[in-house]
Amino acid sequence: DFAAAAVLRTARGVAAALAHLHRSNTTHGDLYAHNTLVDKSGAAKVGDFGAAFGYDGLGAAAAPLVERLEVRAFGCLVEELLERMEPPPPAGVLLAAPLATLRTIVELCMAPDVAGRPSFDDICAALHLSSFDVRP
Which Gene Ontology molecular-function terms are recorded (predicted)? Predict the structure, then answer.
């Protein structure tokens, strides 16, 4: 089981990595738990880029949809982390509000309407606005 702070820290790190990739019109292509690494400091990294590809040539209409497909994979990853989290803190505890924000983000990431899902930049902004201290 994972501590709440570790779940939040991992979600933030993975979202930041994927936002960076997609700003370069590149998709990871295989985002899931086994390709998510956490170093000794607790920082999340994304590994195994064997399925990654650039999507520069897809055009302005299609490119955002490629990102939104990977957003769903991010939602699945975070949902799995939340399911494996230690019992969540009670309401009013420092991390309760950020965890609620994270659950909302997961719902948005899993939306059936691909075009209606948030971008990774949107996800990063929401996690930043949810401001929480996740230092180990």
Answer: ATP binding; protein kinase activity
